[in-house]
């Protein structure tokens, strides 16, 4: 039992989390550098990526608090009073994750829209519908997290009397989100490949745009 309770994956969680955030900072900086040298420059899709990065950094701070309060350890080994802050910081980190990913998906769709707006009207309409679906699904997922208990602190504070709905609701919303995100990734990866060769631009610009699209998906 002692060996079981001695296991702590918190430091690993923290290291991986901040490494990914560091990679995201580098990726966004690279994206903005390339975009600033293109004719249309910085646009709304870039602003959304920056907003997602900021939210990701905030989420990283919540992850840090989560690990500091015992996240990464077996829950049955934590003192009762330590479980509650773990639940709180875990919830806040998940909300940041949902909102940040949603902004990235919308940004990628907007980037593709800029390329095909005048080329294929039906694809543009489809992408706007996809943006609406992504927005709704991520807003619902965030609300599920924030409204699963009323009041919210009843989720982690047993002294607060409240009502909570079944966790199956959160699981269902999460599965729907995963499906929408997977569809968005596939669509936004395939459409540019089928459109770029039809656009009037030199090879260098096509390669740069392809690289930017890959950064958006990442």
Characterize the structure shown:
This protein has 218 residues and is mainly alpha-helical. Helix content is 76%, strand content 2%. The chain has helices at 2-6, 10-36, 44-68, 80-116, 121-147, 167-196, 203-217; strands at residues 149-150, 163-164. Helix 2 (10-36) packs antiparallel against helix 7 (203-217), helix 3 runs antiparallel to helix 4 (80-116) and helix 5 (121-147) runs antiparallel to helix 6 (167-196). The radius of gyration is 21 Å and the shape is elongated. The mean pLDDT is 80.
Could you tell me the strand content as a percent range?
Answer: under 5%
Distance between the termini: 40 Å
- Can you give the helix content as a percent range? over 70%
Give me the side-by-side strand order of the main sheet. Answer: 1-2
Supply the helix-strand structural class: mainly alpha
Number of helices: 7
Morphology? elongated
- Would you count the extended β strands for me? 2
The unreliable regions are none
Rounded average pLDDT: 80
As a whole number of angstroms, the C-alpha radius of gyration is 21 Å
The largest pleated sheet is described as: 2 strands, antiparallel
What is the ordering of alpha helices and beta strands? HHHHHEEHH
């Amino acid at each position: 039992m002692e060996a079981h309770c001695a296991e702590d994956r918190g430091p690993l969680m923290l290291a991986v989390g901040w490494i990914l955030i560091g990679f995201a900072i580098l990726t966004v900086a690279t994206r903005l550098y390339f975009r600033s040298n293109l004719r249309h420059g910085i646009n709304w899709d870039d602003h959304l990526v920056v907003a997602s990065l900021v939210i990701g950094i905030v989420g990283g701070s919540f992850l840090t608090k989560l690990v500091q309060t015992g996240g990464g350890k077996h829950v049955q080994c934590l003192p009762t009073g330590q479980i509650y802050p773990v639940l709180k910081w875990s919830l806040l980190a998940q909300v940041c994750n949902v909102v940040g990913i949603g902004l990235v998906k919308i940004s990628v769709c907007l980037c593709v829209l800029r390329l095909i707006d005048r080329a294929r009207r039906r694809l543009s309409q489809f992408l706007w519908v996809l943006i609406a679906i992504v927005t709704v699904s991520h807003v619902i997922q965030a609300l599920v997290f924030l409204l699963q208990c009323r009041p919210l602190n009843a989720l982690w504070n047993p002294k607060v009397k409240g009502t909570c709905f079944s966790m199956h609701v959160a699981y269902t919303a999460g599965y729907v989100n995963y499906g929408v995100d997977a569809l968005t990734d596939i669509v936004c990866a395939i459409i540019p490949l089928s459109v770029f060769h039809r656009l009037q631009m030199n090879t260098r610009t096509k390669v740069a745009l392809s690289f930017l699209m890959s950064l958006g998906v990442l």
